Amino acid sequence: MQPSEPGDTSLQTIVDYTNQEAPPAVLKLCKVAANGSTGIVGKSFNFTVTPTGGPATKLSILAGPYSQGGYCQVVPGTFQVGTSVNITESVPAGYATPSITVDGASVSSSGCPPVFAGTAFSCTVAAVIGPDVNEVSFTNSPAVANSPLTGGGGTDLPALAIANYSLVHQVATQGKRSYMTYRADLLNAGTTNVGPITASATSLDASALQVVGQGTLTFAGAPANGQVTSRKTFTILTDPNLPPDFSKLKWTIQSTRSIKPEPVQ
């Protein structure tokens, strides 16, 4: 075999790469009522979508059932792959901080308080546009706010709230209802640590859900601007085929003492 001459490609394997710009992508925005928060299904929430270097678009989206992945709306226009889009939700007063996902992955946001806030606030997430359809989802739940509390020494404590219900187990009965046992979180939006705390539930609509037994949750304490999961559980009697509407529960929260915030090191 004769040696190849310079520039001779007869004995070489050549791979060609041809690149072209990705076509513009679509952005879909979804609003989800948190599991058990059936009371906000159908309520309208406001969003602002601002692409890099482009004009802002305002949208109102209805909250859809958790079991269906919420209700979604395609943002008008298309978006260049690889660019960033800021999406801001205007959260009304009385709602917990939303959980946000971009294409199914949880993401952090800016402007959100860590937990329930007594006033309206905004949450912004920056989504990097990928090929085809991009989906950004905001999941909200109402925080069941309670009256201002008074500690054992007569000191006013911040407004607290019960939210983030988690099903522990259920037991069927002979009728259409089941005993459903839950844990829940205590949200503290104030700047003062509080504890220990008890929260007792009563039903506002026994035909929809009925509190069984004492219906009392206990918490060792709640950190300032934070949340804690209950030590105990509570049980309701309700139809297991329908997501329970926890807005029909009234919570009475009591604290025996307040704890001064620890100094920042």
Explain this structure to me?
This protein has 265 residues and is mostly beta strands. It has 2 domains: 26-140, Sandwich (Immunoglobulin-like); 144-259, Sandwich (Immunoglobulin-like), CATH 2.60.40. Helix content is 0%, strand content 46%. The protein contains no helices and 22 strands. The strands form 6 sheets. Strands 10, 13, 14, 17, 19 and 20 form a 6-stranded antiparallel beta sheet that branches. A 5-stranded mixed beta sheet has the order 4-1-9-6-7, with no helix packed on it. The radius of gyration is 26 Å and the shape is elongated. 30% of the residues are buried. Residues 145-157 and 258-265 have low confidence and may be disordered.
Mind sketching the topology for me?
Layout: E1 26-33, E2 44-51, E3 57-62, E4 71-74, E5 84-91, E6 99-102, E7 105-106, E8 121-128, E9 133-140, E10 144-145, E11 149-150, E12 156-157, E13 160-172, E14 178-188, E15 193-194, E16 197-203, E17 209-212, E18 216-219, E19 226-229, E20 234-238, E21 249-255, E22 258-259
Parallel strand pairs: 1-9
Antiparallel strand pairs: 1-4, 2-3, 2-5, 5-8, 6-7, 6-9, 10-13, 11-12, 13-14, 14-19, 14-20, 15-22, 16-18, 16-21, 17-20
